[in-house]
């Protein structure tokens, strides 16, 4: 059975598509049989993996076909990245009225096979609306990958998305793990940093300490068919991007390989090329970034395993989560992003208590 990762957040523009494509790229590079499923009628993921911005302007040969048990899933291979995908359709919203039909359709994803056998990893890019195509994937997924931007708007819905997954979905889909991915941190924003720290401190069980910065060249990397860790020029972010997706793949053990995720064959080459091209140092340890040590989740607030900058490297973009005990926590999850962000952050216990209360009262 495939491991299914659903990238879902009702907030738009947080990086669902960008990060789901990156996860599919890494899974494919690591040798997993990988399928990307574009459930957004905007077709952004379809565009990124084909280079064709109008590819989704059709009802035929799209992911809609998995709603029909008599049809074969119209699997295609990305000419850019090499993994398989089910493309979007502008007509996808027609399936939103029937939740049970969506569940039945998406359950098929666990059983799909390519020419080379069953898929190991299925990545679903969900639309930015609290509709059937955002909710149903959570009921079939192993991992709810929840990208969030560390600003007021980005975090407003975070708590409700986490409690949706833990409160409403988990009692039914007991396999589900929630993994929060902090993306688009603006390096010069102290408020962004305070909110990111607060998310890490409030929800450490669910949050990776690899923070992705808002960088212009993220967009251009995918446009030239490369994951960001292959083009990023600063060591700390290169490592953070790579480690985040590696950790995400590790968060659900893949049956064929257990918990051991192999080193990518070309990681040394990727990193060495980047640095020799810029006359910089080799990657830390002379090779590819190591997988996070110790269990499925890294510990928040601890060593983010982001390399220290060498002399002469960019330092203003190097972000290390604060390691204090939070006495100055200045931004609450979901709070309004007023100019002054004061007040005590919810303690983790408060949040988890609240989540478990919501879980107990969760709807079927
Ligand atoms: N870390 C980043 N740095 C800079 N730009 C980014 C980063 N992550 C995503 N982006 C850009 O932000 C925009 C929104 O990203 P993306 O489309 O992945 O978000 P989304 O959550 O899928 O949006 P939607 O809700 O519309 O589907 C895109 O132009 C993307 O290239
Ligand atoms: Mg998107």
Mean pLDDT, to the nearest integer, reads 77
Distance between the termini: 25 Å
CATH architecture tag? 3-Layer(aba) Sandwich
> What's the helix count?
12
Number of strands: 9
Shape: globular
Coarse structural class: alpha/beta
Structure description:
This protein starts with a strand and ends with a helix. It has one domain (3-360): P-loop containing nucleotide triphosphate hydrolases (Rossmann fold). The protein is α/β, with parallel strands linked by helices. The protein has 12 helices and 9 strands. The strands form 2 sheets. Strands 3-4-2-7-1-8-9 form a 7-stranded mixed sheet, with helices on both faces. A hairpin with a 6-residue loop joins strand 3 and strand 4 (84-86). The site of adenosine-5'-triphosphate has 17 residues, from helix 1 and helix 8.
Summarize the structure.
33% of the residues lie in helices and 10% in strands. It is α/β, with parallel strands linked by helices.
Give the secondary structure arrangement, pairings included.
Blueprint: E1 3-7, H1 16-29, E2 34-38, H2 44-50, E3 76-77, E4 84-86, H3 99-107, E5 113-114, E6 117-118, E7 121-125, H4 132-140, E8 143-148, H5 152-156, H6 158-169, E9 177-182, H7 190-202, H8 216-223, H9 228-231, H10 235-250, H11 267-277, H12 348-360
Parallel strand pairs: 1-7, 1-8, 2-4, 2-7, 8-9
Antiparallel strand pairs: 3-4, 5-6
Helix pairs in contact: 1-2, 1-10, 3-4, 6-12
This protein binds adenosine-5'-triphosphate and magnesium ion.
């Amino acid at each position: 059975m495939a491991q299914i990762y659903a990238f879902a957040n009702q907030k738009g523009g947080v990086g669902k598509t960008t990060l789901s494509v990156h996860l599919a790229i890494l899974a494919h590079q690591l040798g997993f049989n990988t399928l990307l499923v574009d459930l957004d009628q905007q077709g952004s993921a379809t565009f990124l993996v084909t280079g064709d911005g109008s590819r989704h302007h059709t009802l035929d040969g799209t992911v809609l076909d998995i709603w029909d048990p008599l049809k074969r899933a119209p699997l295609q291979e990305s000419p850019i990245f090499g993994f398989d995908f089910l493309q979007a359709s502008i007509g996808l919203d027609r399936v939103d009225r029937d939740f049970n039909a969506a569940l039945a359709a998406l359950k098929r994803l666990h059983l799909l096979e390519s020419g080379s056998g069953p898929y190991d990893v299925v990545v679903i890019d969900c639309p930015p609306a609290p509709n059937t195509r955002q909710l149903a994937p959570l009921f079939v997924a192993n991992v709810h990958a929840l990208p969030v931007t560390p600003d007021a708007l980005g975090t407003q819905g975070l708590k409700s998305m986490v409690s949706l997954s833990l409160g409403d979905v988990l009692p039914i889909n007991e396999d589900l793990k929630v993994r929060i991915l902090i993306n688009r941190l603006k390096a010069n924003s102290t408020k962004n940093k305070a909110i990111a720290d607060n998310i890490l401190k409030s929800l450490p069980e669910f949050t990776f300490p690899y923070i992705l910065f808002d960088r212009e060249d993220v967009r251009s990397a995918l446009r030239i068919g490369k994951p960001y860790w292959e083009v990023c020029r600063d060591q700390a972010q290169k490592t953070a991007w790579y480690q985040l997706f590696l950790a995400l793949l590790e968060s659900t053990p893949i049956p064929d390989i257990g918990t051991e995720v192999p080193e990518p064959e070309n990681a040394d080459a990727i990193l060495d090329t980047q640095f020799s091209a810029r006359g910089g140092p080799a990657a830390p340890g002379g090779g590819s970034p190591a997988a996070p040590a110790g269990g499925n989740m890294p510990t928040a607030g601890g060593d983010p395993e982001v390399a220290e900058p060498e002399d002469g490297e960019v330092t203003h973009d190097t972000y290390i989560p604060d390691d204090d005990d939070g006495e100055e926590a200045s931004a609450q999850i979901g709070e309004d992003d007023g100019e002054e962000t004061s007040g005590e952050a919810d303690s983790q216990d408060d949040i988890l208590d609240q989540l478990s209360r919501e879980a107990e009262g969760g709807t079927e």
